[in-house]
Write a structure and sequence with these properties.
The protein is of the alpha/beta class. Among the domains are: 1-47 and 163-183, Orthogonal Bundle (DNA polymerase, domain 1), CATH 1.10.150; 53-151, Nucleic acid-binding proteins (OB fold (Dihydrolipoamide Acetyltransferase, E2P), Beta Barrel); 254-284 and 300-421, P-loop containing nucleotide triphosphate hydrolases (Rossmann fold, 3-Layer(aba) Sandwich), CATH 3.40.50; 452-611, P-loop containing nucleotide triphosphate hydrolases (Rossmann fold, 3-Layer(aba) Sandwich), CATH 3.40.50. It contains 25 helices and 21 strands. The strands form 4 sheets. It has a 7-stranded parallel sheet, sandwiched between helices. Strands 16-21-20-17-19-18 form a 6-stranded parallel sheet, with helices on both faces. A 5-stranded mixed barrel has the order 2-4-5-7-6. Strand 20, helix 20 and strand 21 form a beta-alpha-beta unit. The protein is globular, with a radius of gyration of 28 Å. It binds adenosine-5'-diphosphate and magnesium ion. Adenosine-5'-diphosphate binds at residues 266, 268-269, 272, 295, 297-303, 445, 448, 551, 553, 555, 582-583. GO terms for molecular function: ATP binding; DNA binding; DNA helicase activity; hydrolase activity. This is Probable DNA 3'-5' helicase RecG. One of its GO terms (biological process) is DNA repair. Residues 461-622 form the Helicase C-terminal domain. InterPro entries: DEAD/DEAH_box_helicase_dom (IPR011545), Helicase_ATP-bd (IPR014001), Helicase_C-like (IPR001650), NA-bd_OB-fold (IPR012340), P-loop_NTPase (IPR027417), RecG/Mfd (IPR047112), RecG_dom3_C (IPR045562), RecG_wedge (IPR033454).
Length: 689
């Protein structure tokens, strides 16, 4: 029963301004989160949930957030004890008398006289029998009504600028109502039934406003499975077509390989040599290489890429290296130019910053078939007139979506392809995820002369950090300071959580040193400029959000300070720590924490004790609660919003199996019930990792 696709597409494509309460200003703020349409709102999943279901008085914990429903039982009073007005009102909650208290919110007085029955959420202070209210909502007479902010499991969304979390909840609730009647499930129902999966509309509703943890879990599985399937389908298509290709065999002499090794400023480790041998053997054959190198941050993957590119150029062809950011592209170009300075082939760099004349010259060389290595970002690599492309390398592969990676192969599918990633995933999952490629694991390099220690201090002892910072900066070393949030300009900082107020503070503390600022709300151009200044030493201490995670190598960086480390995922912390001490010096990573829950304490302990990305990712999962996940989205995988490599391996395996059979079946290509899953599959490409 195929419906007109527009019938379900249209309501989802409507702009957010269609919703009550969203004007042009808020629409712009939403846009900075990548949200333009009703559909985008539906796919803006919570990253956390808060259990604010109504509890009996006996279950309230001192100092914790609770949600209650009660009746106003007296006159509200305003006092001005200190400088702030305090509103207090007695309330009856399930036969218990408490005081609801508001600070600085005199306007609630008027609201309290209008309604009698309220649903409140706030912190319970047992000794005073008072609830410090953070959220209030009147309860309509004759029923609990449908609440989105309290009295339920409440979704918590990533927000931006001055978008209040509460608004997002309200808008997403209306978006759901708007879209639900029009949602057509892309998975045929028979198939869903067989796998025991929820239907799409229900899954979307439950992922945002779960009725209980169990349903949330099932909703998540349903959406994860679809993500996996949509990820696998193009891969399996590509794999199906791959069989018949023949790539140029790149055979280098022993002498040439020795020259390559001699050109390196270091001697490769045994692990690197093993992978180098595998790559050299593979590109010497006619079967196109499709290989993924997985190795922790700092394990030394660049040298593997360099070998494949070297082979392309030395055998008279061209190689291309794709990097996720301009600065990383520049860095690779610099490294490779240095290593290959003694050879006759050039290393070209192409980024958004390359001027026209330069680009024209480069294109002329490339289309004339001149051997060499091209390094660039995906924005510019689409238009290159390759004439002798033999090897493509995709660095930080997880940062590129499937489609972007496919574009690398569009000029010529019969080439050797190497990808590199630092995603901490187990071997078995790597096979399932990247079913169309061979995977090499590069072990972490044994720590060379320098040491990297992790020191954990409470926030109150930040003076010690400043001391150490000053010492290191005056020795010419560089440092990162990372905060969990951006903050708002001109606003009173709540504590050391936001990068803007931290930047101001450090500028004072580090007077005489060059302090820079980097965060996600800056334009890509600005970010690149700051990052470059830091890499070159014009900035000595960089105060930043986690945008610094991407694998830029600043060998002089020897210190990392992470504020409110309890607010980061373990994998994220590990990525951050990997940014320092990259050239063997003594390096130190400070984690500063505020008040900690038990779980948070265990996480930080694990971080201090373990220095292996994969083990940390597993630990992170063990310690996470039922509605608490970060998934890959937060580490920048454009293909996934929910999929978590550690938690969801089984779904990826299933999806791979299903995709494999689907693309080989006539029904899939013919039946209307698969129309949505078929979308976009016509793109050509193969083995796109
Ligand atoms: P990755 O890309 O895997 O994070 P890189 O290739 O950028 O790691 O290497 C990290 C740093 O270690 C670089 O400064 C590099 O020059 C250095 N390095 C890599 N391999 C070795 C080695 N075998 N001996 C000494 N230093 C190395
Ligand atoms: Mg790298």
């Amino acid at each position: 029963m195929e419906r007109d696709p527009r019938a379900w597409q249209d309501p989802l494509a409507r702009p957010v301004t269609f919703l009550p309460g969203v004007g042009p200003r808020r629409a712009r703020a939403l846009e900075s989160l990548g949200i333009r349409s009703i559909g985008d709102l539906l796919y803006h999943y919570p990253f956390r949930y808060e259990d604010l279901r109504l509890r009996r008085p006996g279950e309230w914990e001192d100092g914790r957030r609770v949600a209650v429903e009660g009746t106003v039982a007296g006159k509200p009073r305003v006092s001005r004890g200190g400088r702030v007005p305090v509103v207090a009102v007695p309330m009856d909650v399930q036969g218990i008398r408490i005081h609801a208290v508001w600070f600085r919110q005199a306007y609630v007085l008027e609201r309290l006289t209008r309604y009698r029955r309220w649903r409140l959420a706030g912190r319970w202070q047992a000794a005073r029998r008072s609830l410090v209210v953070e959220h209030m909502e009147p309860v309509s007479e004759g029923g609990a009504g449908h609440s989105v902010h309290a009295g339920r499991i409440v979704p918590v969304y990533q927000t931006s600028g001055d978008l209040r979390p509460k608004w997002l909840r309200t808008w997403i609730a209306s978006a759901l109502k708007e879209a639900e009647p029009h949602l057509v499930d892309p998975l045929p129902w028979r198939w869903r039934a067989k796998l025991g999966l929820m239907d799409k509309a229900e899954a979307l509703r439950e992922i945002h406003f779960p009725r209980d943890w169990e349903r949330l879990g099932r909703a998540r599985e349903r959406l994860v499975y679809e993500e996996c399937l949509r990820f696998q389908l193009p891969l399996q298509c590509a794999r199906w077509r791959q069989k018949s290709r023949r790539a140029p065999a790149l055979r280098l002499t022993r002498r040439e390989w020795e020259e390559f090794l001699a050109a390196l400023p270091f001697s490769p480790t045994e692990g690197q040599r093993r992978v180098l041998r595998a790559v050299a053997a593979e590109i010497a054959g006619h079967a196109p290489m499709r290989r993924l190198i997985l190795g922790d941050v700092g394990s030394g993957k660049t040298v593997i890429a360099a070998a494949a590119l070297f082979a392309a150029a030395m055998s008279g062809g061209q190689g291309v290296l794709l990097a996720p950011t301009e600065i990383l592209a520049e860095q690779h170009a610099r490294t490779l130019s240095g290593w290959f300075a003694g050879f006759s082939f050039p290393v070209w760099l192409l980024t958004g910053g390359t001027d026209r004349a330069e680009r024209t010259r480069c294109f002329a060389d490339i289309s004339a078939g001149r051997p060499g290595i091209l390094v660039g970002t995906h924005a510019v690599l689409g238009h290159v007139p390759y004439s002798a492309l033999r090897v493509a390398v995709c660095d930080e592969q997880q940062r590129f979506g499937v489609v972007q990676r496919m574009a690398l192969l569009r000029p010529n599918e019969s080439i050797h392809l190497l990808s590199m990633s630092a995603t901490p995933i187990p071997r078995t999952l790597a096979m399932a995820l990247f079913g169309d490629v061979d995977v090499s694991f590069l072990p972490a390099r044994p720590e060379t002369p320098g040491r990297r220690v992790t020191r954990w201090l409470p926030l109150e002892r930040e003076e010690e950090v400043v001391l150490e910072l000053r010492q290191r900066l005056s020795r010419g070393e560089r440092a990162y300071v990372v905060a969990p949030a951006i903050g708002r300009p001109g606003e009173q900082p709540e504590s050391k959580k936001d990068v803007l107020s931290l930047f101001d503070w450090f500028r004072e503390q580090l007077a005489g040193f060059a302090v820079g600022l980097l965060h996600g709300r800056m334009s890509p151009g600005e970010k690149e400029r700051v990052m470059r200044a830091f890499a070159e030493g014009a900035i000595q201490a960089l105060v930043a959000t986690t945008v610094v995670e991407v694998g830029v190598d600043v060998p002089e960086a020897t210190m990392m300070v992470i504020y409110h480390a309890e607010r980061f995922g373990l994998s994220q912390l590990h990525q951050l720590r990997g940014r320092i001490g990259r050239s063997g010096q003594d390096a130190v990573c400070f984690v500063l924490t505020g008040p900690l829950t038990d779980i948070a304490r265990q996480r930080i302990e694990a971080f201090q004790a373990v220095n292996d990305g994969y083990l940390l990712a597993k630990k992170d999962l063990e310690l996470r609660g039922p509605g608490d996940w970060a998934g890959l989205a937060q580490s920048g995988w454009p293909d996934f919003a929910l999929f978590d490599p550690i938690r969801d391996e089984i779904w990826m395996r299933r999806a791979k199996h299903h995709a494999h059979h689907l693309v080989r079946s006539r029904e899939f290509w013919l039946l209307p019930e698969f129309a949505s899953l078929r979308e976009g599959l016509a793109v050509s490409g193969e083995g796109i990792h």
